[in-house]
Amino acid sequence: MLPERRSFSKPACVVVLVAIAALAACSTAPPYERPAMALPAAFREASMWQPARGPAVPVPDDWWRLFNDPALDTLQAQVAVGNQTLKASVAQYRAAQAALASSRAGLFPTLGAGLDRTRSSSGSGSGTNTSAGTNYSLSGSASWEVDLWGRLSGDVDSAQARLQASRDDLAAAELSVRATLAQTYFSLRAAEAQAALLQDTLAAYQRSLDLTQNRYQGGVASAADVAQAQNQLKSTQAQRIEAQSSRAQLEHALAVLLGRPPGLFSLPPTATLPEAPDAPVQLPSNLLERRPDIAAAERRVAAANAQVGVARAAFFPALTLSASAGYRGSSLANLVSAPNLFWSLGPALALTVFDGGQRQAAVDSARADVDLAAATYRQTVLTALQEVEDNLVIAASLQEETGVQAEALAAARRALEVTTNQYRAGTVSYLNVVTTQTAVLSAERSLIDVRNRRLSAIGQLLKNIAGRWDVPPLAMQP
Question: From CA 379, how far away is CA 207, in angstroms rounded?
Answer without folding.
Answer: 59
